[in-house]
TrEMBL record:
GO molecular function terms listed in the Swiss-Prot or TrEMBL record: kynurenine-oxoglutarate transaminase activity; pyridoxal phosphate binding
Cofactor(s) required, per the database record: pyridoxal 5'-phosphate
Any one cellular-component term (Gene Ontology): mitochondrion
Gene3D superfamilies the UniProt entry points to: Aspartate Aminotransferase, domain 1 (3.90.1150.10), Type I PLP-dependent aspartate aminotransferase-like (Major domain) (3.40.640.10)
Record key words, sorted: Aminotransferase, Pyridoxal phosphate, Transferase
Residues annotated as domain Aminotransferase class I/classII large: 46-427
InterPro entries: Aminotransferase_I/II_large (IPR004839), Kynurenine-oxoglutarate_AT (IPR051326), NHTrfase_class1_PyrdxlP-BS (IPR004838), PyrdxlP-dep_Trfase (IPR015424), PyrdxlP-dep_Trfase_major (IPR015421), PyrdxlP-dep_Trfase_small (IPR015422)
Stated name of the protein: PLP-dependent transferase
Organism field: Macrolepiota fuliginosa MF-IS2
Family classification: Belongs to the class-I pyridoxal-phosphate-dependent aminotransferase family.
CDD domains: AAT_like
């Protein structure tokens, strides 16, 4: 080997010539994310994927046809207005006005974003100063954390308490908040509170009473409320989906987040939206314009077609019934197994209590799940031995509270009934790994 510039035969390590930003050290951005670890690519090909929440079916044909039509038309192949294409903003206006009980101005109160994630990121960019605190209920959708810290914010966690042990058949409503805990989490730096209803990963649909209590705190301490309602079309058992923005006075301080991905089985489209008063939308528009400039144009047209026709086609009602049937397949499988789970009143996730799943600690686990919570190993073991993938719930907790999440695996039921029935059969294979 020829001699190298450092005078040894060992090549210089050039991998850190350009140090990356310390920002990535916060918000767990450097840890491998749970979606990548439990990606189908890492699991056996015949594993049934109930992990990451996306559908194994296409959007309705009448919506994909609208996408095709948009692709065959000149204008929607080009930049949209940063606020979003007017057809989609008009459709959002018509669809949401009755739900918000007010008129919505398409020029100043509706903003189309590149998925709900980017919309939320832009709100943080627009409103957070360095060191501002953002309250979020724990467990929380994992993306909130880096979105807050990248924008200089500090996450502050308030627990959603798991169902008391004596509750035989808990529902998502048995996960409770304690208003005094929210109050004591507030400091002079608290700027925002994130509400997520229906909730990922619990499926909790916050009650009017809970939202009224949160609203009272937001008023008292002058907080901006970000209400992530991307699962608003998936509320079951006649439970009421309450929009915190519709509570007295709350429109003025709330930004509501929506998603075409969830509504129309199109998670890869990355079309989301924000609805809020002008003085919340305007700064957020300034941020989003400089982050992405505008969002995917043809699929905005398709999302508009979806919203335009949804009510006439009874689309959301039919879809809700389909999801209720999908939920029932997994619930029956868990009942048959005799395992405890949280019956979700909304969203498409079920939390299964995996405390009793017994696995050998010397199982050949990959590096990616070692050193993480017990649930990472349990979920890996279930995927390998039972053939069903899921998401470990400690990922939705901060490190100090990860032990609470370790008791659960999250299974997504946004899959066709044949797949869920096959999973239900396989689930019975879990019996032999239960402690009692
Ligand atoms: N929202 C989806 C879920 O919770 C996907 C999240 C993601 O991939 N970042 O499963």
């Amino acid at each position: 080997m020829s001699s190298l510039s450092n005078g040894t035969s060992k090549p210089l390590d050039r991998s850190n010539l350009i140090p990356f930003s310390s920002r990535l050290r916060e918000g767990r951005a450097l840890a491998q994310d749970v979606w990548s670890i439990f990606n189908v690519a890492n699991l056996p090909a015949d594993c049934i994927n109930l992990g990451q929440g996306y559908m194994n079916f296409s959007p309705p044909k009448w919506i994909t046809e609208a996408a095709t039509e948009a692709l065959n038309t000149v204008a929607p192949n080009h930049y949209s207005h940063p606020r979003g294409r007017i057809r989609l903003r008009d459709a959002l206006k018509t669809f949401y006005e009755p739900l918000f009980g007010r008129s919505l101005d398409v020029e100043s109160e509706i903003l189309v974003t590149s998925g709900a994630n980017e919309g939320q990121y832009s709100v943080f960019t627009a409103f957070l100063e360095q060191g501002d605190e953002v309250i979020m209920f724990e467990p929380f959708f994992d993306q909130y954390l880096p979105s807050v810290t990248f924008n200089g914010g500090k996450p502050v966690y308030v627990p959603l308490h798991p169902p008391a042990a004596h509750i035989e058949n808990p529902t998502s409503d048995d996960w409770t908040i304690n208003i005094d805990e929210i109050r004591s989490a507030i400091t002079s730096r608290t700027k925002m509170i994130i509400v997520n209803t229906p909730h990922n990963p619990i499926g909790k649909v916050f009650t009017r009473k809970e939202l009224e209590a949160i609203a009272a705190i937001a008023e008292e301490f002058n907080l901006l409320v970000m209400s992530d309602e991307v699962y608003d079309c998936l509320v079951f058992d006649n439970k009421e989906h309450v929009r915190i923005a519709t509570l007295p006075g709350m429109w003025d301080r709330t930004v509501t987040v929506g998603s075409a991905g969830k509504a129309f089985a199109a998670t890869g489209w990355r079309i989301g939206w924000l609805i809020a008063p002008k003085y919340i939308i305007q700064p957020t528009l300034a941020a989003t314009t400089r982050i992405v400039f505008c969002s995917n144009s043809p699929l905005q047209e398709a999302a508009a077609a979806g919203l335009e026709q949804a009510n006439d086609r009874n689309f959301f009602e039919i879809q809700r019934a389909e999801y209720a049937e999908r939920r029932a397949i997994l619930v029956d499988a868990f009942d048959k197994l005799g395992m405890k789970y949280t019956l979700p009143e909304g969203s498409y996730f079920i939390l299964l209590d995996i405390s009793d799943v017994d696995f050998p600690e010397d199982y050949p686990f990959p590096e990616s799940v070692l050193g993480r919570g017990r649930d990472f190993r349990a979920c890996w073991f279930i995927a390998m031995e039972v053939g069903i993938s899921s998401i470990p719930v400690s990922e939705f907790y901060c490190e100090e509270h990860a032990n609470i999440g370790e008791a659960y695996a999250r299974f997504a039921f946004c899959k066709d009934t044949d797949t869920l029935k096959a999973a239900a059969d396989r689930f019975q294979g879990l019996k032999k790994f239960l402690k009692h």
